[in-house]
Amino acid sequence: MNNRICPSEEILSEYLSGGLTPGERAGVEKHLAGCPGCRKLLAEAHDVLKRPDIREIGHSAFRWVRKDHWLIGSVLTLACSFLCPRYFLQFLVASLLMGAKWIIDSKTTKMLIMIQEAWKSGDKEKTDKILSRFTPDK
Fold first, then answer.
1. What gap in Å lies between CA 118 and CA 50, rounded to an integer?
2. Domain ranges in the chain?
3. Taking a C-beta distance cutoff of 8 angstroms, is the pair 28, 8 a contact?
4. Which of 11, 3, 12, 4 is nearest to 39 (CA)?
5. 117-133 residue pLDDT tens
């Protein structure tokens, strides 16, 4: 690859992001047609950009744990109840309590309670407004 005729890495980066003018883009594409070194560099840069970010994966896992921490605790204490038979009843009660807390804290449960209270009060407009916002978790 000859640096005098090959586009710089900044230009190739702009090409990937779509930041070049149509004329510049055509020039880069013409060069790429005849330069295997730049095509390889561009392919590697494309792969790096499309690779999932490890930090984002960690953040999404952390959000999931924070969202369902009561469920995770319930499952772990249920497993402990079988692993430590001496404390079976204590772990089982803890598992049931955490499971109940998970159910009570869930978004759907809160929404259903709001709908039931609006329905009991007889306020059809408020009930319809709540129902229009209801989208079940997938």
1. 47
2. 9-50, 61-104, 106-138
3. no
4. 12
5. 887 888 778 777 777 77
Residue 20 backbone zone (phi > 0: left; psi -120 to 50: alpha; other: beta) = beta
The angle, 0 to 180 degrees and rounded to 10, between the axes of the packed helices 22-34 and 9-17 is: 120
Give tens-digit pLDDT for 7-19. 888 888 888 888 8
- In 10 A of CB 11, how many CB atoms? 17
Report the predicted TM-score, pTM, of the whole model to 2 decimal places: 0.41
Are 73 and 98 in contact by the 8 Å Cβ rule? The answer is: yes
Q: How many CA atoms lie within 13 A of 34 on its CB side?
A: 8
Only one residue has tokens 């560099």, namely 41
